[in-house]
Amino acid sequence: MNKYAVWFRALVWLGVIQNCVMGIPAIFAPNWLLELLHQRPTEDPVWTSFAGLLVVLLSLFYIPGGNDPYRYTSNAVLAIFARSQGVIFFFFIYPNVYPVFGIIDLVFFLFQAPLLILTMLNKPQAYTPDNDDKSLQRRDKSPSLQ
């Protein structure tokens, strides 16, 4: 992988870790986490806990695109798209409610989006996904059903 892909992978994994570090406590102690981040407490901890769960689950979908953005391009693009939607949600739809979450998504978006673009612009010409050669050979040797 080229240097942009390596940096993109690192930042996606950093984002996954960040989402889990904030999402897991939000599931079990939402107001504690909000207080720790100097945000207003929630009046409905169930929905805030559920949002934490969704953030953790969403992060799992970032992993394939972060590990191999050439093979899982859709996952990589959607990871960036999800960050941009977090910015829109926390800055424009619900401004000044939980701005720290918008700031986090903005920072990741501003670093990850250009890195993904540079990663795709510098895609190796003879790229083949890891471990895919064996599965292609098996398919070529299998009898045809024609």
The counted number of beta strands is 0
Average residue-wise pLDDT? 91
Per DSSP, the total helix count is 6
Q: Percentage of helical residues?
A: over 70%
Low-confidence stretches: none
Radius of gyration in whole Å, from Cα?
19 Å
Distance between the termini: 38 Å
From the structure above, extract its key features.
146 residues, mainly alpha, single chain
Polypeptide structure, described:
With 146 residues, the chain is an all-alpha fold. It has one domain. Helix content is 75%, strand content 0%. The chain contains 6 helices and no strands. The protein is elongated.
Secondary structure layout plus pairing:
Elements (H helix, E strand, L loop, with lengths): L2 H26 L1 H7 L8 H23 L5 H21 L5 H23 L10 H10 L5
Helix pairs in contact: 1-2, 1-3, 1-5, 3-4, 4-5
Q: In summary, what is this structure?
A:
With 146 residues, this protein is mainly α.
